[in-house]
C-alpha cells in the first residue's frame, strides 16, 4: 500500500472511530469490519467486485445493500458507501486495522504475540502478561504460538517492538559479536 493510501486509511479510520464513539457503536463497527473482511477472504468474487474500478459506485451500493441488509450497522453501510463513492475501496483492510488500533488504545489494551519453543504453562503465560502489563501500563491480551526453531525461551511482539528472549536469538547475537571481534 502506498504511503498516500496509508495516510488516507488513517484519516478514514480516525473519522469512523470518532463517529462510532459518539454513537456508542465502536464494538459493532469492529465486528462489522471483521465480518466483511472474513467474507471477502472467503468469497473472491465479492472481493473482486469491491475493488474493481469497472463497477460503478451506485452498483456497489446496491450490491452491498443486498448482501449486508440486516447484518451490519447503518453506520458501517454508510461508511462502505462513502469508500465506494470516493473510489477508496482498496483501503478498507488498512482502515479496519487502524480502527482496531484506535479502539485498543482507547481501551488501554495492547495485543501481544508470544512465540515459544514449547507450549507454555498457564502460569508462564500469566507471568508474561503481568510483566508486559507492568512494562506498558496497559492491559495485555496475549496470543501464543509454538515454533520449535527458536530452541527455547520466548519471542514477544508488542505493537512495533520485538523482544527476543529466545535461545536462537541469543546464539545469533553471540555469533555476531564473535564475528565482529575476529
Give a verbal description of the structure.
The protein has 182 residues and is of the alpha+beta class. It has 2 domains: 103 residues, Orthogonal Bundle (Peroxidase, domain 1); 73 residues, Glutaredoxin (3-Layer(aba) Sandwich). Helix content is 63%, strand content 15%. It contains 8 helices and 4 strands. Strands 2-1-3-4 form a 4-stranded mixed β-sheet. α2 crosses α3 and α2 packs antiparallel against α6. It is elongated. The mean pLDDT is 91.
Element layout with pairings:
Blueprint: H1 3-22, H2 26-42, H3 44-51, H4 57-68, H5 74-85, H6 92-106, E1 109-116, H7 122-136, E2 139-146, E3 153-158, E4 161-166, H8 167-181
Helix pairs in contact: 1-6, 2-3, 2-6, 4-5
How many DSSP E strands? 4
Largest sheet: 4 strands, mixed
Which residues form runs of ≥5 with pLDDT under 50? none
- Computed over alpha carbons, the radius of gyration is 21 Å
Structural class: alpha+beta
Number of helices: 8
According to CATH, the fold-level topology of the largest domain is Peroxidase, domain 1
In round numbers, the mean pLDDT is 91
| Helix content bin | 55-70%
Summarize it:
By secondary structure, this protein is an alpha+beta fold. The chain is built from 8 helices and 4 strands; from the N terminus they run ααααααβαβββα.
Characteristic terms for this protein:
single chain, 182 residues, alpha+beta, Peroxidase, domain 1, Glutaredoxin, 2 domains, four-stranded mixed beta sheet, 63% helix, 15% strand, elongated
Amino acid at each position: 500500500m502506498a504511503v498516500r493510501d496509508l495516510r488516507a486509511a488513517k484519516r478514514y479510520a480516525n473519522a469512523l472511530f470518532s463517529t462510532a464513539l459518539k454513537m456508542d457503536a465502536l464494538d459493532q463497527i469492529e465486528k462489522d469490519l471483521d465480518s466483511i473482511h472474513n467474507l471477502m477472504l472467503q468469497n473472491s468474487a465479492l472481493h473482486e467486485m469491491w475493488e474493481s474500478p469497472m463497477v460503478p459506485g451506485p452498483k456497489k451500493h446496491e450490491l452491498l445493500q443486498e448482501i449486508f441488509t440486516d447484518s451490519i450497522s447503518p453506520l458501517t453501510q454508510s461508511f462502505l458507501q462513502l469508500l465506494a463513492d470516493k473510489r477508496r475501496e482498496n483501503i478498507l483492510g488498512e482502515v479496519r486495522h487502524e480502527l482496531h488500533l484506535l479502539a485498543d488504545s482507547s481501551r488501554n489494551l495492547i495485543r501481544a504475540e508470544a512465540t515459544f519453543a514449547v507450549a507454555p504453562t498457564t502460569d508462564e503465560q500469566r507471568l508474561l502478561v503481568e510483566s508486559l502489563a507492568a512494562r506498558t501500563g496497559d492491559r495485555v491480551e496475549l496470543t501464543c504460538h509454538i515454533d520449535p526453531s527458536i530452541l527455547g525461551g520466548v519471542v514477544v511482539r508488542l505493537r512495533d517492538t520485538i523482544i527476543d528472549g529466545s535461545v536462537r536469538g541469543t546464539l545469533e547475537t553471540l555469533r555476531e559479536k564473535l564475528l565482529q571481534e575476529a
